[in-house]
Amino acid sequence: MRTLFVAFGIVRLLSAQDIQPPAEGPVAIELKRQPPVDPAAVPKDYRPRLDVPLNATAQEAVRVSEAWRGEPNAPAAGADGRVLYSFGAGLPTVVCAPLRVCMIELQAGEKIVGEPQIGDSVRWNISPALYGAGDQATAVIVLKPQSPGLDTNLLITTDRRAYYLRLISKPEEYVARVAFAYPDEDNRKWRAQIAEQTAAARQEKRDAAAVIPAVVAVEKMNFSYSIKGGDEHLRPVRVFDDGAKTYIQMPADIQHREAPVLVVLGADGKGEMTNYRVRDQIYIVDRLFERANLILGSGKKAQKVEITRGEPKG
């Protein structure tokens, strides 16, 4: 077999012997190596940069942070051997020792979010634990240093707050159990309780004012009402008015029984539309009436109490 080869206007027939296949196997590529740096070319006074200068803002930020870390956060004795730190008052310090277990206990019901971050993850062993169940389940961080003389920090993030602590290892001394007190949360609970008590007192005062207005003088009260019918559970204890509203005081056990319906009767003896409300065991009627009935039930089995207003005694 011959192949026609044209190059630069010259025509030549090539035989099979003239065409050689490419060599099999990898092709070696020669890499040129950079010449080593001559130490003499490096200035003698050159030093690698190990620090960065801080501007005034950064220096102030560092000062504020150092001040917080230096604030005294005196520990207190807690239950079951706990050492209590006040959360947020300063930097808590946990002292551990090799071959000893230290535990950091969080608030009951608090959940750890993400993995705790420790500055020295090589020489400190850290693992999570949990005790309790439901809303009282308590998360625990277990710490074990591998050697004494270590000093690092730890960050724990939860669904309620972030804990930032200092960890120190000593040859023998250690703190077995660390927990926290939460003064801000306790203050909120006290404020909420005081607000609730204040609101309850105001509501009680309003209710009392609505039942018997303080501006009404005793001499203006009219207790001249006659009551007929019913039993001791249905018959009012007393009925009186202040010249504008009528008050019907029922027995105390009415709160645990079915309340009767109040029907005010007109001059023709028929029931009239009347605005009234019931607070505790007192019916408050927004008007005066001559006659009214308290009715419990319907039909022939209905129970009825008749109330009739008399002339005020004066």
Task: Compose a concise summary of this entry.
This protein has 314 residues and is of the alpha+beta class. It has 2 helices and 21 strands.
Topology:
Layout: E1 2-7, E2 10-15, H1 56-70, E3 76-77, E4 83-86, E5 93-96, E6 102-105, E7 117-118, E8 124-131, E9 138-145, E10 151-157, E11 162-169, E12 177-181, H2 183-211, E13 225-228, E14 238-241, E15 246-249, E16 261-265, E17 271-272, E18 276-279, E19 282-285, E20 291-296, E21 303-309
Parallel strand pairs: 4-12, 5-11, 6-12
Antiparallel strand pairs: 1-2, 3-4, 6-9, 7-10, 8-9, 10-11, 13-21, 14-15, 15-19, 16-17, 16-20, 18-19, 20-21
Radius of gyration based on Cα positions: 46 Å
Largest sheet: 6 strands, mixed
Which strand order does the major sheet show? 3-4-12-6-9-8
Fraction in helix: 10-25%
Number of helices: 2
Order of helices and strands: EEHEEEEEEEEEEHEEEEEEEEE
Low-confidence stretches: 3-11
What's the mean pLDDT score? 84
Number of strands: 21
Kindly name the structural category: alpha+beta
Q: What spatial form do the alpha-carbon principal axes imply? A: rod-shaped
CA distance, first residue to last residue = 147 Å
Strand content: 25-35%
